[in-house]
Design a protein that fits this description.
- The chain is mostly helical and 100 residues long.
- 59% of the residues lie in helices and 0% in strands.
- The chain has helices at 9-13, 23-30, 32-38, 45-64, 71-89.
- The chain is globular.
Length: 100
Amino acid sequence: MNPSRSLPGWLRAADGLRPGETSMRYLARHSHSFRYAARFLPPPYDALVAEVYAFCRFTDDLVDVAEERDADILRARLDEWRALARGAYEGRPAGYPLLD
């Protein structure tokens, strides 16, 4: 079974990490200042910190830049995101690069 099939439609359409894209590339599109600052960290910490930041940035953008403005719908999306993140942390692939 392809895990991405179970992803909600709003998540498949979100501007997250693209297949094959690194966290640093994601930051180049979404956070120029953090990407620049991360270059001062030694490997492998630069990439590890970039991954954490990309996850946090994406999570924040789920509400901040969402076209949807209904608070109940946004809350439900965050609940779904939290459940997917928790599952990925527990070893269940979510089929989404920022989680897996």
